[in-house]
Amino acid sequence: xxxxxxxxxxxxxxxxxxxxxxxxxxxxxxxxxxxxxxxxxxxxxxxxxxxxxxxxxxxxxxxxxxxxxxxxxxxxxxxxxxxxxxxxxxxx
Length: 92
Hints:
The protein is mainly alpha-helical. It has helices spanning about 5-25, 35-40, 45-50, 70-80; strands spanning about 30-35, 60, 65-70.
């Protein structure tokens, strides 16, 4: 294991620990609106993940037309996303 590998693992552990602490304290929501997801990850990426059925926006009761996405699922898809899932313009 190299220093670069170790630093990557430490960064992931720190991020996961901070997210867990924030979620348990109620400071980090379980879901994000679709607009919040667009701001964090970009409209093109979020729409592509929806089109590929990797994430599924849902409408919560009493929220009107707002669509919500599970934050943990969205983060997992964003971490795993790579250029191999992109379609060429001719293939769309």
